[in-house]
């Protein structure tokens, strides 16, 4: 398992998984799943760069926190077989509690 350490103000996020089918049981076509995957704006923080400064009322951002981030922010990277995103600290919009 390789380690990916974001530099500067970057934050590594694992986006939430997009479902394969609807709540009613219908399977979604691949194109719809891809569209939803790239529109995902929620995920879990995997790593935080040394200069990232994200502060909330209840304290700083920590690894494992669930966050909402800018839809088109960052870049997609392959991290241990998963598609993750690296975003700037300013792209973190909210922490989910």
| Shape category | globular
Q: What proportion strand?
A: 35-45%
The number of domains? 1
The N- to C-terminal Cα distance equals: 29 Å
Main beta sheet, described? 6 strands, antiparallel
Spans with pLDDT under 50 lasting ≥5 residues?
Answer: none
Percentage of residues assigned to helices: 10-25%
Radius of gyration: 14 Å
CATH topology (fold) name: 10 Kd Chaperonin, Protein Cpn10, Chain O
- Average pLDDT, rounded to a whole number, is 88
CATH architecture verdict: Roll
| SSE pattern, N- to C-terminal | EHEEEEEEE
Quickly count the helices: 1
Quick description:
With 97 residues, this protein is mainly β.
What structural keywords apply?
6-stranded antiparallel beta sheet; mainly beta; 10 Kd Chaperonin, Protein Cpn10, Chain O; 97 residues; two-stranded antiparallel sheet; 1 helix
What does this structure look like?
The protein is mainly beta. It has a single domain (10-96), classed as 10 Kd Chaperonin, Protein Cpn10, Chain O (Roll), CATH 2.30.33.40. It contains 1 helix and 8 strands. It has one helix at 30-39, and strands spanning 10-15, 42-48, 55-56, 59-60, 66-69, 75-79, 82-88, 92-96. The strands form 2 sheets. A 6-stranded antiparallel β-sheet has the order 6-7-1-2-5-8, with no helix packed on it. A hairpin with a 2-residue loop joins strand 6 (75-79) and strand 7.
């Amino acid at each position: 398992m390789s380690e990916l350490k974001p530099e500067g103000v970057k934050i590594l996020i694992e986006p939430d998984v997009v479902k394969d089918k609807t709540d009613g049981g219908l399977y979604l076509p691949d194109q719809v799943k891809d569209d939803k995957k790239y529109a995902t704006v929620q995920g879990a923080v995997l790593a935080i760069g040394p200069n990232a400064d994200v502060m909330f009322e209840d304290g700083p951002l920590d690894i494992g926190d669930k966050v909402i981030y800018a839809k088109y922010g960052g870049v997609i990277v392959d991290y241990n077989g998963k598609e993750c995103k690296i975003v700037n600290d300013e792209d973190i919009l909210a922490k989910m509690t």
